[in-house]
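Let's practice the habit of predicting before peeking. Look at the sequence and jot down your guess about where helices and strands might fall. Then scroll down.
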Amino acid sequence: MKRFGKSSKSASGRKKAGWKVVVGFIIFQFIFALITAPLIVFYGPFANVRKTVVGAAMTTLSHQWIAKIFLSDEQIQAILNENKIETIVQDDTAIKFTNTHDDSVEVEEITEGSKFHGYMIIVNDPTRVKVGYSSKLGTAGEMTSQIAKANGAIAAINGGGFTDQSGTSMWTGTGGIPTGLLMSGGKIISNDLGSNSVKVDVMAITKEGALLVGPHSINEMTKLGVMEAISFGPAIIVNGKTTIKSGDGGWGIAPRTAIGQKKDGTILMLVIDGRQTDSLGASLRDVQNIMLEYGAFNATNLDGGSSATMYYENEVLNNPCDPLGERSVPSIVYVK
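Done guessing? Here is the structure:
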């Protein structure tokens, strides 16, 4: 009996020791992966992964350290230069169409396997599309849904970016100070361009409902009868031609917001979720391809990341990646 007792105790000890080895091995593998994964990403043979990670990091501002801790500024710039986005001048005479004033608004789900998930709003009457802005502009932004409800909108997406900061992190502030131009109802609400002849990437809508994308000055937009405008880019489809000629666009994978217009005037409003287990995000090329599939003749990227939000019939359709939910923004594009 004594021998049996000793043997049982010894077996129990061996089991405990075995579990310690297993747990220790798992911990070692985890730590090893944490140490080696960045080295593989930034110095390994996977060029596309490296470009995606660097592009995503360098366009979020507050997360640029992810790339800078492993790569020099010269190396980062060389990687970003591998993505070529061509600037195409929009032919403003080619955006004429007969507006049927069909007041229907449709929503369709966009899914690319486990890569990303999002929604497309299709607006048949482009004259219903307007720019809204925070009632606290200059001090603080408001959520997309708040601005939408204040304007009696049936649908909306977030619009332009902002430059205010909170603490030491850029673009983590209140969204109160918009970048570039902000025009609503034919009135300039905010403008930091310095000159009416300066050209910047815009999303602008004329009185007739034509969408302008790419570089335009205030003088040009005034001549074309622009009523609504925000500054953001880059343009991804111009005159029916794609602007991304190599790589994925250089902005990595992230939540995205974009707007486009078909030749018949139909407005396309897109939001894709990102930075989530069931939706990693989309590249600019992904957004370009989706807009092409929907027949966009002109399209441009808008502010994405944590700001990416879609509102429809009194609810937020998508799943914003900010831990607190909707992010405060200075402007939206909405359907009246």
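How did you do? The longest strand covers residues 105-112.
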